[in-house]
Amino acid sequence: MWDGIFTGLETAVAPFNLMMVVVGCFAGTFIGMLPGLGPISAVALMIPITYGLDPASGIILMAGVYYGAVFGGSTSSILINAPGCASTVVTAFDGYPLAQKGQAGKALALAAYCSFTGGTIGALILLVAAPALATVSLSFQSSDYFALMVLGLTAVAAFSGKGQVLKALAMTVFGLMIATVGTDAISGIPRFTFGNIDLIDGISFLLLAMATFALAEVVMSVLKGNHRVEDAPMDMSSLGSMKLSKEEVKNIAPTATRSSLFGFLVGVLPGAGATIAAFLAYGVERNLSPRAIKDKFGKGALRGLAAPEAANNAASTGSFVPLLTLGIPGSGTTAIMLGALIAYGIQPGPRLFVDNPDVFWSVIISMYFGNLVLLILNLPLIPYISRLLVIPKPILIPLILFFSITGVYLVSFNSFDIELMAIITIIALLLRLLNFPMAPMLLGFILGGMFENNLSRALIISDGSLAFIWQRPLTLLIMCLAVVVLLMPVIGRFVGWRRLQGKASMMVADKGEG
Amino acid sequence: MLKKYVGKNAILAATLAVATSLSAGAAQAIDDIHFLIPGGAGGGWDGTARGTGEALTKSGLLDSASYENMSGGGGGKAIAHLIETADQAHGTLMVNSTPIVIRSLTKVFPQNFRDLTPIAATIGDYAAFVVPTASKYQSFAELVADYKANPRSVAVAGGSSRGGMDHLVAAMAFKAAGGDATKVKYVSYDAGGKAMAGMLSGETHVLSTGFSEAIAMKNAGEVRILAITADERSPAAADVPTLQELGYDASFVNWRGFFAAPGLSDADALAYQQLLEKMYATDAWAEVRDRNGWTEIFRPGPEFIAFLEQQEGVIGELMKELGFL
Question: What domain range is A261 assigned to?
Answer without folding.
Answer: 2-471
